[in-house]
Amino acid sequence: MLNRDDLKGLKLSNPIHLAAVGFGSGLAPKAPGTFGTLAAVPLFYLLAMLSIESYIAVLVVTSFAGFWFCHVTSDAMGVHDHKAIVWDEFVGYWITMLPVLFFYPDLNNTMDIPFIWIAIGFALFRFFDVLKPFPISWLDKKVHGGFGIMIDDIVAGVFAAIGLLLIIQYWG
Fold it and tell me: What is the rounded average pLDDT of the residues 48-59?
């Protein structure tokens, strides 16, 4: 699998690289961002067991860690924002799902989260991540390094979270 020419410099034995490629989910030959986002879903269920304050703290920590993971991995691969680097999709999806925790703050079990919100959050995040409306497209093109890899997905997550919030508020 790692014999692909586009994966030169990537070492899955390096935990930073492994995290950056979404624990392998970003190695999908087609639609790695979609596979990375899918891999973030079960982790969201685990994170949803935290208090809202702890969840937000995890978002901050994983964002800052992502700046580093993505920078180190893209440098090793010699490509800015290689498609296999999907840590940004993980964080972007988790940001998207924040409104769910405000509407379901007393979860006894993360399975109490209606699956429809998981699916709509997924679709909204992928929509904003793929289409990249302004300012996401500008950030994607103009900001470089690990911060640049992460920031467009962070903003896509914020846009998707606003969309999810409105949908839950009016149709939930």
Answer: 93
| Cβ pair 168, 99 in contact under 8 A | yes
**Is pLDDT of 1 > 60?**
no
Q: Which amino acid makes up residue 121?
A: G
Distance of CA 27 to the CA centre of its chain: 15
Selected residue with higher pLDDT from 1 and 166? 166
Residues 6+ away with beta carbon under 8 Å from 33:
26, 83, 86, 89, 126, 129, 130
φ/ψ (deg, to 5) at 42? -65, -30
For residue 135, is the peptide bond before it cis, meaning its omega torsion is within 30 degrees of 0? Answer: yes
Amino acid, single-letter form, for residue 29: P
Polymer length in residues for the chain:
172
Name 53's Cβ contacts closer than 8 Å, sequence gap at least 6.
none
